[in-house]
Each structure stands twice: as structure tokens, then as C-alpha cells.
């Protein structure tokens, strides 16, 4: 809890787990730090990883940047 992070890779596949990870790490990310989220762009995870990321970011200044690999990244402002 008392650490700062510059890079976090989230690969938990499930909605609740993804949302929990985002909530835990977001406030601990340094400005310019990157969150990489797996499964954001895959159809079978639209109600899981993608939904969690989109919901989490709805009141944040950052946006999810999708990658061709099915992942997305978020750069902390």
C-alpha cells in the first residue's frame, strides 16, 4: 500500500478483479506511469475487462488507448 508505481500490468480477465486492481493501483501511480490492461479488445471480455476499465475511467481525465494486441494502456496524468 505504501509503494508508488510507474508500470502495472493487469491480467486478471474478470470484471471485479480488473476493477479492484484499477482502484488499488490508480492512486499509487506516478504521473506519466502506465497501466497496461489485458483482454480489453477481445470480444469475449467486453463484459469483463473492457467494462471494468471503461467504468473506472468514466470520471477520470485519462482514456484507455486500445492496442492491436487486444490490450489497452492508460497513462496517468
Essential attributes:
77 residues; 4-stranded mixed β-sheet; alpha+beta; globular; 2 helices; 27% strand
Explain how this protein is built.
The model has no long low-confidence stretch (mean pLDDT 96). With 77 residues, the chain is an alpha+beta fold. Helix 1 (15-26) links the parallel strand 1 (5-10) and strand 2. It contains two helices and four strands, in the order βαβαββ. The protein is globular and about 35 Å long.
Average pLDDT: 96
H/E order of the elements? EHEHEE
Largest sheet: 4 strands, mixed
Rg computed from alpha carbons, rounded to a whole number of angstroms:
11 Å
Helix percent reads 25-40%
Low-confidence stretches: none
Tally of alpha and pi helices: 2
Return the structural class: alpha+beta
User: How much beta, percentage-wise?
Assistant: 25-35%
Strand order of the largest sheet: 1-2-4-3
Q: What is the 3D form?
A: globular
Distance between the termini: 20 Å
DSSP E strands, number: 4
